[in-house]
Amino acid sequence: MTTDLLASLLHAAAEAVLSRPTMAGYTGGAERFAADHRAALLDMLAQSDDLRRLCRERLRIPRSRQAEWDFAGLLLHTDPEVRAAAVRLAEMVGGRQADATVDRRLRRLHDRNKQLQEKLRTATGKRDNALADVKAHRQTAREAVERAERLDAELSATRRRLRDPVSTASALLALLQEEPPEPEGDSQSRDPRLWRQPPPAPAPSLLETTARLAGITPESFVRVLRALIEPPKPPPTATVAVSGERDLRVVPLGGGTGIGGSCLLVEAGGTRVLVDAGLVPGDPPRPPADIARALDGPLHAVVVTHAHNDHCGYVPALADRLPDLRIIATPETVQLMPAMWLDSVKIMDQRRRLAGTWGGDTEPLYPREAIDEAALRCEELAFGVPRRVGDLTVELFPAGHILGAAGVVVRAGESRVAVTGDISGFRQKSVDGYAVPESARYADLLVMESTCCTEDHRDRDGLVGELVRAVEGIYAQGGRVLIPAFALGRAQELALVMRSHLPHVPVLVDGMAADISRSFEAVTADGPHPLSIFGGNVGRARPGDMDRFTRGVVISTSGMLSGGPAVRWAAKILPDPRSALFLSGYQDEESPGRRLLASVQSVSPHLVVDDMGEERRIPVRARVDLMRLSAHADRRGLLEIADEVSAREVMLVHGAARRQTEFREVLRLRRHTTTATRDWRVS
């Protein structure tokens, strides 16, 4: 049988060779050619891929003739050592050795082939694992470098600001003018025997103590600091003196009827100020839509409401272009912004490198050096303290939302504009709600965010309770819960919720969210309400935890699953039916998070993500849910703000146009006068 197959194989090889044009003169036929050139044909079979392919096509050996098939497979094998052994066996067959000897050698050769195949599979698996380890280590190293860069940026900004007299003066003034926390009661107030005694004299404030050490009055000390911060006001021209300060104008430049790229131009007299200058998320991120209008003339300052990049991400580009631009924000926002700016530059650099590979032009909106310059220009301003900018005066007030978030009151003479920024009235673990100041009441214009203007959120305690119960259930059945979260605000809030409500459940914070959490702790350490995010059951994720951490909660960036360690955690967790992934915030229409929510309704749910330039398809067997803990005021909350401010007119920004139209009608029914989201001038 084997001898017949060898003859057939050599005949097929001879036919293939004779079919070449160069052999056209040979007349002996394939059978004779095979007999005369047997050794040469075997050697050609061992060396030529094309000849082996042609022989396979000509033979078409059925699987039922397994032994013959195996023998032909050995002669046509891709491994040269196997082919060489098969050729030697073929020569033995040609030498008419006993069939039993041939069969034994054939079986041994077949077994050897199976061993080689098994070794190949094992080696391939080891190679794939090694490549995966190398990729993971490279990613860990890259994240460590990025973390070091963020910390270095924060440290460099702090050092430069401490060496700059204006920055130092603004930080000192913000610290001295902060309101001390109200005492919650002490032993004397609770002791009835002391009720009739006169109350103890109040302790001197930090401002009074510092002024006394300087040998001047507190008022004089504040005037000295303000003189360092606020440039001398030029003498007004006759035109400005008569009408300039009354001519208060507001122009939405970005984020008016959409979310992202928030920017509002406020001007009066000869002074022009921006409230926020954010980036529009996208690929690539873009500046505020109409920022060119702000750059048509002089620009004196930008007042930043909070450190989310859709409100502050374009500030370094302005600082890079305008050498005298002032940047005003709360102390917390000033300290948090450099890390957020650095993250934007990192993303822009990545997109530029990809553009260089695939073609296209995506130059970053600003260089890394602009971050240092912007950080140096920052002026810290405490809540409730007016600061003059030319013909305007700005004052910040608490807006809730995230740590350091502020609303702004801008005054020009007797005219006032109140801007909420992103605002919330409910108390969170990481920040209290808003507090409208007297200076905002009865303003000429209230510029109010409208992100959730048509929603009525459920009671926050109820939402937190639902999340806690869901996490407890997954933990009880031995699974992991991944909560993708925005690095600034949401991640810290979730970590504090877990620490407070589920102290027995291990929690890891990963990615940029962990660095920002450390910043939260540092920023609040010396304040009235220090935050302790890490400790107890909450820790920072370490290399190797994706395999070692098999039960508990992971809070990781990015919040929309568009990149970062959350994607790699998802690849580990989503295929596990005991585990869960809970999306906690807004999901853009084109985001992987939104696609995941849509996919779980399909027959074959999966998540397709781009991880380090590689597209991955992850099967979904875990529970997937949206458990949104919004940090924005809902319809009822916004109505309360509008009622409390009672402005002459209300302008809506930072929301969808369709929803704004619906909410304006609600405001009208509540007897509020609204104005379209466009240029506005005090009447």
Q: Which radius of gyration do the C-alpha atoms yield?
A: 36 Å
How many domains, in number, for the residues? 3
CATH architecture of the largest domain: 4-Layer Sandwich
Hey, roughly how much beta strand do the residues contain?
Answer: 5-15%
DSSP helical segment count: 25
What key phrases describe this protein's structure?
single chain, 683 residues, alpha/beta, Metallo-beta-lactamase, Chain A, Rossmann fold, 3 domains, seven-stranded mixed beta sheet, 25 helices, 22 strands, elongated
What topology emerges from the helices and strands here?
Blueprint: H1 2-18, H2 30-36, H3 38-47, H4 49-59, H5 66-75, H6 80-94, H7 99-163, H8 165-176, H9 187-190, H10 206-214, H11 218-229, H12 238-244, E1 249-254, E2 263-268, E3 271-277, H13 291-294, E4 301-303, H14 309-312, H15 315-321, E5 326-329, H16 331-358, H17 369-377, E6 378-380, E7 387-389, E8 392-398, E9 406-412, E10 415-419, E11 445-449, H18 460-476, E12 480-484, H19 490-501, E13 507-510, H20 512-524, E14 538-540, H21 545-548, E15 552-556, H22 565-573, E16 580-583, H23 592-599, E17 606-611, E18 614-619, E19 623-626, H24 635-645, E20 649-653, H25 657-669, E21 674-675, E22 680-681
Parallel strand pairs: 3-4, 4-5, 5-6, 10-11, 11-20, 12-15, 12-16, 13-14, 13-15, 16-19, 20-21
Antiparallel strand pairs: 1-2, 1-22, 2-3, 7-8, 8-9, 9-10, 17-18
